[in-house]
Amino acid sequence: MRILHTMLRVTDLQKSISFYTDILGMHLLRRKDFPDGKFTLAFMGYGDEADNTVLELTHNWETGSYELGNAYGHIAIEVADVYAACDAIKAKGGEVVREAGPMKHGSTVIAFVKDPDGYMIELIGSK
Question: How high is the pLDDT of residue 127?
Fold first, then answer.
């Protein structure tokens, strides 16, 4: 068994695709419209779905907003240099909501970024 993907519902699919490709460096792996169901799926990732866990963005055509709830946590992405990643994200217009630095009660360097729908992405320095 393996984890295939995590799904997030998004309100503006193109804005979300741009964020994950242009700011976080993912690739749009595949996209499919489902006219009868009035939704579109876009699969994003850093590598082929056969070998990597990916992110599924679901856009329901007639839904203008969502409530994120209080149970969702975040997506974690490993980066070589959290400080440099934050600088690059900010330079591309991304929102860093917790600057790079050691985690509380630990030494691992982390940061948090917010996507266009308010989902949190944790950047974790590689060991």
Answer: 67
